[in-house]
Amino acid sequence: MSEIKVGGVEKFSAVDFPEKLTAVVFMQGCPWKCPFCHNASIRDLNQENDFSWELWMNFLRSRVGKLDAVTFSGGEPLMQDCLSDAISEVKDLGFAIGLHTGGYRPKHLEKILPLVDWVGLDIKAPFEVEPYQNIVGVNHLAQVEQSLDLLIQSKVDFECRTTCDPRFLTSKDLLKIAKSLKAKGVKKYFLQKYRPIESDKTTTDSDCENIFSADLIEYCKNNFEKFDIRR
To answer: How far is CA 162 from CA 18, 45, 84, 102, 137, in A?
Structure first.
């Protein structure tokens, strides 16, 4: 798999695929510039590295029967044209397949959905052009909405989640997102507490907690089959 570009791996995780023990592959490249990203170092798709896909596959072969799944994260996995080939090679070993995506490339998502067992779709902002572009850096809202529609129409298990960076989002913004997702038919929604990136020297833990208002929590608990705040 010489064409696949991987920025890093995590050999074991209990939090990157619901109720499964998974290895994680951080696919290189992302078209967005989210200010709260902890993986910005792998944003450049063309950055050279010495990662060996075959060595990774050898590791996965040694984990058959010990791990349940492999999750393709990023970066943005949908950037890479060879993603379906990489997923198929891993799936042939018997692993369940997870995918973390922002929904950047719906046509590619549609192609790989038959290979995927679970998807975590990151919702960055309310479904309005300006707020979304303020966070991701480009106007890709239409692509995100198309990807969400594909997931809703598919039989693939998925969740939506939002990183709650108080520098860019308010509790009212999060409530607006939640109401939009509910209206579209989303069943699972999770709020992720922002962990300040290294360059953020001003955001406090109180700032990160106070965004979770009582009204927001009550609405989400009452309107989604599964909801939680991931801290």
So the answer is: 16, 24, 26, 10, 17
φ, ψ of residue 85 to 5 degrees: the values are -65, -45
Record the tokens describing residue 15, joined without a space. Answer: 């939090």
| Mean pLDDT, the chain, whole residue set | 96
Residue 189 pLDDT exceeds 80: yes
- Distant-in-sequence, close-in-space partners of 155: CB < 8 Å, separation ≥ 6: none
220: burial class by Cβ within 10 Å (0-12, 13-18, 19+)? buried
> Residue 135's closest CA among 94, 175, 169?
169
Phi, psi angle pair for 60, to nearest 5°: -60, -35
Task: Reply yes or no on whether the pLDDT at 143 is more than 60.
Answer: yes
